[in-house]
Amino acid sequence: MGTYNLTDEKGLQKYLEATQFPAASVQLLSGGNANYVFRVTKHDGSTSIFKHAEPVLKLNKDFALDPARMDYEVRILEALSSTESPLPTSLTGSNVHAARFLTYDRSEKLLQIEDGGRRNLKDAYTDPKLDILYIGEQLATWLAALHIAARNFSLASPDQTADSNNNPIAVNVYRYSYNDLHTALTQFGHDPQLAVLINEKFGSLLATDDECLCHGDFWPGNILIRDAELQPIELTIVDWEMVRRGTSATDVGQFAAEAFLLDRFRGGRGLLDVFLNAYIAARGQTEVLGKAWLTRMVVHWAVHIAFWPTRVAWSGQEETHSLVDIGVLALQNVLEENWEKVLESPLLRDVKETYSTLLFRP
């Protein structure tokens, strides 16, 4: 790696003084277990975010993760920040955008992006001033536009000689919950063979999915909110290092899972339903969205619900057990192709009128 210790405030301050500008303040931000993220304030009061990748996770030094993941984040942020890009830098009437790229030091694996605000959607969800339904609709419309525009986008850098146009680091990491699902099922008294079967049948597909570009970690914690009093709310999408080519169903399924958890535990504000309906409306009658896509979306949602709450607590043990049960039941119903029960699951029961139409397409 580089010549500066970029894992603490003093090291970044020294780096900035030597290479860019003297900072008025450097603040290490909490949140995220992979990288070191700082808010840097200049002497004129302006702020930006610096993000540094190490070869191991910040909160688990035993877990190695190639720092080249940052190169892929830069590749997509540069494209999203370019007016010449085919990707949706912004949508007419939309207040959603990807974090604007500023600078990148490849040798130090240090990325500078705009400061999108001090709150993320997960933390701000309970704020009564926020129009959660509007936010869900805006995010779904933007995500659908990304998936549509990025059908042929390659993640290979111009100087890359390998054949792959994908991010192999993200492809590998994204199977983590499928690979470890058996541990959650065993912990709460379910047959771990279900997890093995789901991983073989669906987890294996993650290596070859190639429909479009996916954010790779699309959830409310990676959506920053800047809500000034005199202007519409602004939503900034961050943390693109798991960007990969895959199936759009996984981006939708992951956000749907976290929206379900927010609605269930933090006030039932309707984020899940409005997001799911708006996404289908924005995608329209595309050839991609059919029974196969719906299957993948439901499976991804169910794996997330059954696995992640056993690692990131939302409530007590009894409620966690009920979440695992919900995920397991949905997975069993998918395997048995019992679509009547799938449509009555907590994921789809309030949007089944819209989603049942997908069953009549391949």
Give a verbal description of the structure.
By secondary structure, the protein is of the alpha+beta class. The protein has a domain at about 115-360: Aminoglycoside 3'-phosphotransferase, Chain: A, domain 2 (Alpha-Beta Complex), CATH 3.90.1200.10. About 40% of the residues lie in helices and about 10% in strands. It contains 13 helices and eleven strands. It has helices at about 10-20, 70-80, 120-125, 130-150, 170-175, 175-185, 190-200, 250-265, 270-285, 290-305, 315-335, 340-345, 350-355, and strands at about 25-30, 35-40, 45-50, 95-100, 100-105, 110-115, 120, 210-215, 225, 235, 245. It has a five-stranded antiparallel beta sheet, sandwiched between helices. Strands 4-10-9-7 form a four-stranded mixed beta sheet. Strands 8-11 form a two-stranded antiparallel sheet. A hairpin with a 7-residue loop joins β9 and β10 (about 235). α6 (about 175-185) packs across α10, α8 (about 250-265) packs across α10 (about 290-305) and α10 (about 290-305) packs antiparallel against α11 (about 315-335). The protein is globular and about 60 Å long. About 40% of the residues are buried. The mean pLDDT is about 90.
**What is the beta-strand fraction?**
5-15%
Mean pLDDT: 91
Helicity, as a percent range: 40-55%
- CATH superfamily of the domain at 116-360, called what? Aminoglycoside phosphotransferase (APH), C-terminal lobe
Radius of gyration: 20 Å
Straight-line N-to-C gap: 48 Å
Content-based structural category:
alpha+beta
Named CATH architecture of the domain at 116-360: Alpha-Beta Complex
Low-confidence stretches: none
Q: How is the largest sheet built, in terms of strand order? A: 1-2-3-6-5
Major sheet description: 5 strands, antiparallel
Shape: globular
Query: Could you give the order of the helices and strands?
Result: HEEEHEEEEHHHHHEEEEHHHHHH
Number of helices: 13
CATH fold name of the domain at 116-360: Aminoglycoside 3'-phosphotransferase, Chain: A, domain 2
Multimerization state: single chain
